[in-house]
Design brief:
Elements (H helix, E strand, L loop, with lengths): L2 H11 L12 H24 L4 H19 L1 H14 L1 H4 L1 H4 L2 H23 L9 H14 L7 H12 L11 H27 L6 E4 L2 E4 L5 H22 L2 H17 L2 H17 L7 H24 L4 H7 L8 H14 L19 H6 L7 H29 L4 H17 L9 H35 L6
Antiparallel strand pairs: 1-2
Helix pairs in contact: 2-3, 4-7, 4-10, 8-9, 8-18, 10-11, 10-12, 10-20, 11-12, 11-13, 11-19, 11-20, 13-19, 14-15, 16-18, 18-19
Length: about 475
């Protein structure tokens, strides 16, 4: 029996995953040549029919030229997209152009385009419990029930795409190299944001720090609240890797990201990160990262708390210390905006007003919107309640829980424990922030998809190894 026949037999026995649509070898370039030739013929026919079609074909041809290196190097382009999403171009570009919403949509569409590239290179999969199905349900029920008076169908479609996009990578099979690259990039996204923000500050384009009620907050190229969210996600990612291999660089990354998180003044992300870190440090066993290596970090944290408290009593220049000493009860205006969302939800409690309705509850020209500087709910449960009612919100919570449990079921023990703790922290954080529509969602769930896919690849490799070992133990019979 040949090696290729043996490999095919082994794939059939272990239920191998469906192959990629396009072989990354010679078949890929053949596919691109055929696609390019077909495009040129279509451009010729369209231009002969109506010359006004020529600019559209030229634009499409430019995108096709860009698509060739993207398809050839999906890992590099995915990392570049993740850094772009983390840098928040809707802010450092949107502040000048005034088109922040459009830029956000473009970044998410680029992510969906990368999903298609990954499907072409690695193959597709049906992610049955993906939370994006909850948003689709809210869209359909909103159309059936009737949309919010100021919400159009087109706006609801845009909100559907924007809400579902962060979860999209789980519909593709992913390579081990892609997963490792996305995970490692996620760990260093906050450092990249701060470094890029420092460059923008040096050229006097955008300040590195912002001021809020006389207190300074580190912003980088994004908003301090977003930077805090990115730092919390980076801490989660570094914790997973630290408990897998125990490498000191992950411990260094955790410390750096905690410094960034503290300087950002983001309270809810800091609380979530501290909670997950404490639970993991005290209750999760790990051979690569044993308790004797954790003890110095725990002692350092215990010593740092009284120092922080002492600084908080006399310092108001740093926002987090200001909050700890004077304004811990403040909700940053959330208590003013939440009643509007509760009334909108009460007006259609079961099925809500359609996906995207939450963006229209507060009039952007109202005094409240100008005072707070936002029309967002800063509470995903209220926003989802307005969009999908109790049914839609319940479905989303159920799918998020089942999604996390299903994908971590066969993951390594430390991965399973930390990832489930992260989802619990995310659920708590969602009560005071926009965790599903902010830029942080794109980074977080790309990382989650990478962790999930890596666990599945490891499970498949373990099954294959066990099958090979079992066959090796079987006696050979000669007839």
């Amino acid at each position: 029996m040949s090696a290729s026949q043996l490999a095919k037999g082994q794939s059939r026995r272990r239920g191998a995953a469906p192959p990629a649509l396009v072989d990354p070898g010679g078949e890929l370039y053949g596919f691109l040549l055929v696609a390019g030739g077909g495009f040129l013929l279509a451009m010729l026919a369209g231009s002969l029919y109506n010359i006004r079609f020529l600019p559209l074909f030229l634009a499409a041809g430019t995108l096709l030229c860009v698509a060739v290196p993207v398809i050839s190097a999906p890992v590099v382009t995915s990392v570049a997209w993740l850094l772009l999403a983390g840098s928040s171009p809707e802010m450092w570009i949107g502040d000048v152009t005034g088109q922040g919403g459009v830029i956000t949509a473009v970044v998410k569409v680029l992510g969906l385009a990368l999903l298609v590239v990954c499907m072409v290179r690695y193959g597709a999969r049906l992610d049955r419990f993906n939370p994006s199905f909850a948003f689709l349900f809210m869209f359909v029920t909103g159309l059936a029930h009737g949309l919010w008076p100021t919400l159009t169908v087109i706006d609801s479609v845009r909100s559907l795409i924007g809400s579902a996009a962060p979860f999209a990578f789980s519909f593709s099979r992913l390579s081990r190299r892609w997963c490792n690259a996305i995970i490692n990039t996620t760990i260093w996204v906050p450092s990249f944001i701060v470094g890029f923000g420092a460059v923008l500050a040096l050229v006097h384009y955008r300040p590195l720090f912002t001021s809020e009620a006389g207190a300074f907050r580190l912003a980088g190229s994004t908003h301090p609240a977003f930077l805090g969210g990115f730092a919390a996600i980076a801490i989660y990612a570094a914790l997973v890797e630290l408990y897998r291999d125990g490498r000191p660089r992950h411990l260094v990354a955790i410390v750096i990201n905690y410094v960034i998180l503290g300087l950002s003044g983001a309270r809810a992300p800091l609380a979530g990160a501290l909670g997950v870190t404490a639970v993991v440090f005290f209750f999760l066993r790990s051979q690569p990262f044993p308790m004797r290596r954790r003890l110095p970090m725990v002692l350092f944290g215990m010593l740092a708390l009284p120092v922080l408290a002492a600084l908080a009593t006399g310092s108001s220049g740093i926002r987090l210390l200001n909050v700890l000493s004077n304004h811990a009860e403040s909700l940053s205006g959330r208590d003013l905006i939440w009643p509007l969302f509760r009334r909108a939800w009460d007006a259609s409690p079961m099925f809500g007003w359609g996906i995207g309705a939450g963006k229209n509850v507060v009039d952007p020209d109202s005094l409240l919107a100008h005072l707070l500087g936002t029309v967002a709910a800063h509470n995903e449960y209220l926003r989802m309640g307005v969009d999908g009612g109790y049914v839609g919100l319940g479905l989303l919570i159920l799918l998020m829980a089942v999604w996390a449990i299903t994908w971590t079921r066969h993951a390594p023990r430390t991965d399973r424990f930390i990832m489930r703790a992260v989802f619990i922290a995310f659920a708590i954080h969602s009560a005071t922030d926009n965790t599903l529509i902010a830029a942080t969602a794109s980074v977080m769930f790309a990382w989650v998809s990478a962790v999930f896919a890596r666990a599945e690849l490891e499970r498949e490799a373990a099954v294959a190894a066990a099958s090979a070992a079992h066959r090796a133990d079987q006696p050979a019979y000669v007839t």
